[in-house]
Write a structure and sequence with these properties.
- The protein contains 17 helices and four strands.
- The chain is mainly alpha-helical and 398 residues long.
- It has a domain of 215 residues: Alpha/alpha barrel (Glycosyltransferase), CATH 1.50.10.100.
- The strands form two sheets. The chain has a two-stranded parallel sheet. It has a two-stranded antiparallel sheet with strand order 2-3.
- Helix 7 packs antiparallel against helix 9.
- The chain is globular and about 70 Å long.
- The chain starts with a helix and ends with a helix.
- The relative contact order is 0.11.
């Protein structure tokens, strides 16, 4: 385990080598820039469908204007470090062992979420910041109403920038198992929200509320966090994960590398991620490691969501994951097509799914697949299952 001084040195060197983005060059990564420009043009042309969606978006954004800024220091628990600025959470599938006097160590029950985890608020609050800033920044981008940008900036500053409230750039204490450890590499999956937040911050470029020092400070935070992911024990464990955790690690790392201007690292990681397609997807398109789970349908879709996002990011550094095939002749589309009739409930699911399932989980994947694979039936299926996701409709639907 690196000492604190060595950790700081690693972060400093990483930042100096990799941090070269300017405020003016910030562009969204998962939001399609061409689509966003097209939306503005349709608004100027008074396109009735887009205007209705923007009105719905504004209604959602208006409700967020009264949202209280949240912080990691708001939690009533303190991580093992003794510092509330450190993010912490508890493993969701581990439960009190009633056969033990103190209930420790907790026992795993895959797919059964322990409501006890909700007592620690960091994970939920980070998700709230993601949802709120994406809605607010998109509302600002499409309407020019500064009140939306001002609110998004207040939320970002509280979570990432203000010395008294900001989160430290590590996940040393995420998904701890009571009686076993204080945190695990698996917990890194909880920072997927940071990818949406990065896009929200990028959309705010040009707002009078989002100052250039703020932009640089946020990028420096992300650079520090990426360095932690790539050098820490927990990060190395998740980097090596063979299932959806590994896919989401690559997706996050590539996103953060791009956000901080480190295109060399982004390309390296995107190329490296192909080895996950080599091992995760069989010749039929099944993903065996996800099918082992007690919520196999959910985790199969979840892994595909990671692959679709990662493939979109990889395009930025000219790595084509959409068409990549492994030695079995399978790739992302093979997995998508195998899963499609089950996700749409056209065929009976033969594996475990002990939790609830909603076809809407597949909605955005269908819209992305329709665009990337030039297949109109995918969009037709999407139209059948969901009309209410305003952000997804704006960003993906034709």
């Amino acid at each position: 385990m690196a000492t604190k001084s060595l950790r700081f040195l690693h972060i400093l060197l990483f930042s100096l080598l990799c941090f070269d983005v300017t405020a003016q060059s910030l562009k969204p990564l998962l939001f399609d820039e061409t689509r966003l420009t097209g939306l503005k043009q349709k608004i100027a042309q008074q396109d009735s469908k887009i205007l209705r969606l923007v009105d719905k978006l504004k209604q959602q954004a208006d409700k967020l204007l009264d949202m209280k800024p949240v912080s990691v220091i708001d939690k009533s628990f303190t991580p093992a470090s003794g510092n509330k600025h450190d993010y912490m959470s508890q493993a969701p599938y581990f439960w009190y062992d009633s056969s033990k006097p103190d209930g420790l160590p907790y026992l795993r029950r895959d797919g059964r979420r322990n409501p006890e985890i909700n007592k620690i608020t960091d994970h939920a609050f980070l998700g709230d910041i993601d949802n709120a800033t994406r809605t607010l920044s998109l509302a600002w981008y499409l309407t020019g109403e500064e009140k939306y940008a001002e609110k998004a900036v207040a939320l970002l500053r509280c979570w990432f920038l203000n010395d008294s409230t900001k989160m430290n750039s590590n996940l040393d204490y995420a998904q701890a198992i009571p009686g076993v450890n204080n945190g695990r590499g698996i917990g890194i999956i909880e920072t997927i929200a940071l990818t949406g937040i990065a896009d929200a911050a990028s959309l705010l470029s040009g707002s009078s509320a989002w100052k250039e020092p703020d932009v640089h400070a946020l990028q420096q935070w992300y650079s520090s966090y990426l360095n932690w992911m790539l050098t820490s024990k927990n990060g190395n464990e998740e980097h090596a994960a063979k299932n959806n955790h590994g896919t989401w690690f690559y997706m996050q790392a590539v996103d953060f590398a791009l956000f901080t201007g480190n295109t060399t690292k982004a390309k390296e990681l995107a190329e490296e991620s192909k080895k996950r397609i080599d091992t995760q997807i069989d010749n039929d398109g099944k993903m065996p490691l996800e099918l082992e789970r007690t919520n196999a349908l959910h985790y199969s879709i979840y892994n595909l969501q990671a692959w679709f996002n990662l493939a979109m990011l990889a395009e930025k550094v000219k790595v084509d994951l959409w068409q990549y095939k492994n030695m079995k002749g399978a790739g992302i589309r093979t997995a998508f097509d195998w899963l499609l009739p089950y996700a749409l409930e056209q065929k009976k699911w033969d594996y475990q799914q002990i939790g609830g399932y909603n076809k809407n989980e597949f909605y955005t994947l269908l819209l992305q697949a329709a665009s990337k694979f030039k297949e109109s039936r995918y969009e037709a299926y999407a139209r059948e299952i969901n009309k209410d996701d305003v952000v997804a409709n704006l960003l993906f639907e034709k």
